[in-house]
Amino acid sequence: MSLQDLGSIGNLIGAIAVVVSLVYLAIQVRQNTRAVRASTERAIFAQNMDFDRMVVSDPELNRIWILGRSKPDQLTEEQARRFRRLMSMYYRHFEDLYFQHQDALVGNRVFDAWRTIGMELSRQPGAVLWWERYSGVLTEEFRHFVEQGRAGHPGATADVVQP
Question: Suppose 149 and one of 93, 96, 125, 156 were both cysteines; which one would form an S-S bond, judging by CB atoms 3.0 to 4.6 Å apart?
Answer without folding.
Answer: 156
